Amino acid sequence: MNKNLVFYIVLSVCIVVSFGFTCFYFMKALNYTVTVTAEQAKLSHDYHFVLIGQEFDNPYHKKVLEGAQTAAKEHDVLLEFIGPKQTNIDEHTKLIEMAIAARVDGILTQGLTNREFKPVIDKAISKGIPVITIDTDLEDSRRVAYVGTNNYEAGKQMGEALAEATNGEAKVAIVTGILYANNLMERVQGFLDVIENYPDIEVVAMESSNISQIQAAEKTYQMLRNHPEVTAFFGTSALDGIGIAQAVTKANLQEDILIFAFDDLEETMELVEQEKIFATLKQEPYEMGYQGVSLLVQTMKGQPIPKINYTSLEVLYKKRVGEIDE
Q1: Taking the model in full, what pTM does it have?
Q2: Which of 91, 97, 216, 275 satisfies CB 3.0 to 4.6 Å to 209 for a cystine?
Q3: Which residues of the chain have pLDDT under 50?
């Protein structure tokens, strides 16, 4: 056999195998294939909803799932939970497309960005599939309702907490999950709008962690090297505060730097208890999931629902600066 022919046959086989593995791992990364149609779901359940999280294994989104599952059991809903392994806008919107193609009865998702999410949310609505945004709203879309934090107000509360704790004097570094995510941008803006009123509080750096605890720690190391004057950190998403605390502790600066975090994950609360994180803002992800499913059921029944459904916020401390231990 001609050597060139053999070479091209082997090359072709390699390309086909490579393409097959690429497809396999791409679908695996999505963590979701349509396994149930709307018609099949209705044989055993009243409705078939899909909850699409920003990250499949993120502990914050697992709390959203717990609430959604509780409501799903109460209302005889078949609930599927899907999401990319890591934050990926293209994969996230493709999952919404797949849910539309499966003709589910309702979708719960985030409105992370205007350009990418508005068209696909509007497409679902045009197909008769109601969409409720949770955690991150997209007011410009045709979504039926929003359930979640008032993210601008959350940022303001953390700005006020920092201003109080530092007596209005600080050099601040911000670690934010994603620079372009609507909810995180709103938190940062609320924070900045508060500290504008304090001339001796200055933001000296801001970096993205890409919703990664490891990257949050790495970006904190970099900012500490580049800005040794930093006296406070603000982390805007669930894993940021943990990563910041790791870096600050490793640099042995926990006595000199105050950390303001988001969410009450178990590890975050342990760090608050150890006084390595000064304060964290508690959201209600369980309630977001629970209300989201419940409101979708009401929508399916033709019942009117509020467009905006804000969940509660609370700043948690071990103790405030200057507080005397009892």
Answers
A1: 0.83
A2: 216
A3: 3, 6-8, 10-11, 13-35, 324-326
CATH code of the domain made up of 151-282: 3.40.50.2300
> 177 with 236: CB under 8 angstroms?
yes
Q: Determine the 3-state secondary structure of 289 from DSSP.
A: helix
Residues in the chain: 326
pLDDT of residue 45: 86
Cα distance between residue 169 and residue 232, in whole Å: 10
What is the pairing mode between strands 131-134 and 170-176? unpaired
Find, among 237, 233, 251, the residue nearest to 55 by Cα.
237
| Cα 161 from Cα 265, distance rounded (Å) | 19
Residues 6+ apart with CB under 8 A from 228: none
Task: State the Cα–Cα distance between residues 307 and 144, nearest whole angstrom.
Answer: 7
- How far apart CA 235 and CA 135 sit, in angstroms, is 17
Kindly state the tokens that stand for 282. Answer: 């508690």
Distance CA 15, CA 32 (A): 25
**Strand, helix or coil for residue 175:** strand
Residues of the chain with CATH 3.40.50.2300: 29-149+285-311, 151-282
